[in-house]
Amino acid sequence: SAPILAAHAVTKSFGSTPALRDADLSVAAGEVLAIMGPSGSGKSTLLHCLAGILSPDTGEIIFDGHSLNTMSENERTLVRRDRFGFVFQFGQLVPELPVLENVMLPLLLGHTSRRMARAAATALLDRLDLSGLHRRRPGELSGGQAQRVAVARALVNQPKVVFADEPTGSLDSLAGENVMDLLLTAAREQDATVVLVTHDARVAACADREVLVRDGEVTDYATVASVDPDG
Ligand code: ADP
Ligand code: ADP
């Protein structure tokens, strides 16, 4: 079947610093893909290009059959808002708003009514066993709780693809495992594809497939889970 997301010969430089060189990557629908590599190798740049946050200098990003490059900025914004979910390392929750309101935000930005947004956010928090946190502010949460709320927020709009950039980077290993469990379970329940940047091999081991970025070049290596016996 056609990939849900692909990068074709993508290059991106910042001034004279090349961050991605001729990167090719294909992500199957429903797949959990981990992007690994040393610091400064281009992982975040690749993620941001795939997510339509950064525009490549050359090459193309195809999401669900549509080129992100040829869309208007406005169309890309709608794709990010309605089709993608995002989890970052930290600092993504709005500190003034309680957990429930934070989880409602992506829906409110998409012009869902407050009533519907509240119902959807409440149901998701219940399903993820986070309902006890509804009224807390982000400053009252542990790092692991905040990241689990961030996962809920990333999934509340039923995205096709969830992008996660070092989602466990600020956590100890137990809290990190809990966040990854929640992300993967919730994504699977919603048939969402997950594209994950991590330098942690234990986090990457949760993925269906890993790719390695080195000096801006992407190497695709199959893990046991994704080897096709007939291939
Ligand atoms: P990683 O996520 O693997 O740590 P990045 O994609 O963040 O790597 O960075 C790849 C390269 O691009 C690095 O040399 C980095 O310094 C550079 N870079 C990334 N973002 C910017 C930016 N906004 N401005 C200038 N250089 C950048
Ligand atoms: P309820 O009907 O449950 O009282 P409200 O809509 O009155 O719901 O508020 C829900 C929560 O959101 C409350 O904790 C309230 O303090 C908080 N809240 C509402 N608006 C804001 C805002 N603009 N900034 C911060 N917190 C807010």
From TrEMBL:
The keyword Cell membrane belongs to this UniProt entry's keyword annotation? no
Recorded superkingdom = Bacteria
Q: Which keywords annotate this record?
A: ATP-binding, Nucleotide-binding, Transport
User: Which InterPro entries does the annotation name?
Assistant: AAA+_ATPase, ABC_transporter-like_ATP-bd, ABC_transporter-like_CS, ABC_transpr_LolD-like, MacB-like_ATP-bd, P-loop_NTPase
Q: Which residues form the ABC transporter domain?
A: 5-231
Q: Which GO terms describe its molecular function?
A: ATP binding
Q: Which Gene3D superfamilies match?
A: P-loop containing nucleotide triphosphate hydrolases (3.40.50.300)
TM region(s), chain numbering: none
Q: Which SMART domains match?
A: AAA
Q: Which Pfam families match?
A: ABC_tran
Query: Entry's PANTHER family?
Result: ABC TRANSPORTER RELATED, IMPORT ATP-BINDING PROTEIN
According to UniProt, the name of this protein is ABC transporter ATP-binding protein
- Per the UniProt record, the source organism is Dactylosporangium darangshiense
